[in-house]
Amino acid sequence: MKNKTTTSLLMGLLAVSLAASPCYASTQQKITDTQNAQQENQQKLNDTQSRINSLESKKDDLEGYLQELNQQLGDLEENLQEIQTKSDETQQKLEKLGKELEAAKEKEQQQYQDMKLRIQYMYENAENSYVVMLLESNSISEFLSQAENMSQINQYDRDMLEEYKKTTEEIEEKENSIQQEQQELENLKQESLDKQDEIYEVVKTTNLQIQDYEGQISREEGNAQNLMAQIESQKDTINTLIKQQKDEEAAQILAQRQAQAAASQQQAASTADTTTSQSSQESASTSTQQPSAPSSTVTEESQQTSSGNGNTYLGRFRLTGYCPCAQCCGKSDGITASGTTATAGRTVAMGGVPLGTKLMINGTVYTVEDRGTSYGHVDIFFNSHSEALQFGSGYADVYQVN
Fold this sequence. Notes:
Layout: H1 2-124, H2 126-136, H3 140-277, H4 281-287, H5 292-307, E1 312-322, H6 326-329, E2 347-349, E3 358-361, E4 364-370, E5 377-381, H7 385-391, E6 393-400
Parallel strand pairs: 1-5, 2-4
Antiparallel strand pairs: 1-6, 2-5, 3-4, 3-6
Helix pairs in contact: 1-3, 2-3, 3-4, 3-5
InterPro entries: 3D_YorM, PcsB_CC
Protein name: Peptidoglycan hydrolase PcsB coiled-coil domain-containing protein
Organism: Candidatus Blautia pullistercoris
């Protein structure tokens, strides 16, 4: 009878295990498929980010080149202003020389006309003039002196005419030189304007390229946001599936523990029956009331083990430690995902459950205030990195405090 009962209980445990296995395998396959899809999206996200970085680098290079072009335009503008200033000064010189040349030519012409009149007068009245000078002179010396004066006047006229001609030629040479300088300035001005137009065209093309890169970056960033949204959704799906798997495991463990408790209770009852049949009627009367006590005790222990003093058994979870350093969290401010300040002995990180969920682990009640791990993996907060490393990694039964 005893062997038969034990065999029935073992068959029951086997049936519970076999019933849970297909569900577990199905959930695990879903988790694997979702993780593979998540890894594929993560690779796409990495590729997208690489393209964004490349586009940003090219855009930065073009913006640097654009700054150089703008600097060149600024230099050309200053150069044009200098050329224009010199051109204006040269034009003023040309106008001044033009006036001087005109005045010199007029004076030369006037001098020439006066000299012609004197020569004509002297030629027409030369004979009378010399006779008059001879008659009016008191002596030969006076006559020769007056004749010499007339000769000097003629020489002076010729000298002045030559001087005016020379002055006119010098002015014309200066005018030609300044006109040549003015032409050179105009050529430089035109070259600067042509260079300016060329740079403006390059600036226009560069701006179009920058806009094209900005459009590509915007599209890639949109793709990255979509991929991140998909990855986050897949994380949630994985956490949900892992939670479902852990719930199945917890249910299986709970059923096994209940079956073991029932087997222990049945075995105790069978032993009590055997003892009762060998006792006297008076002892049998007393013994028939004995099994109820151990049966109750075993049942209570079973319920406490499976539910954690009335709390919901979640399963056997992996435990690790972390601290508020940049190596563990990527930052060092100690602020959790829930907005609280992480506190040793209270704060844990885990996904798949709402923030604020209370978990009992090895008799200590913690609060889920942070993220970073999937469901089934509890990261316990410590004040220092050495404490987190010392804690290491392990497994423990986890209960949700109701």
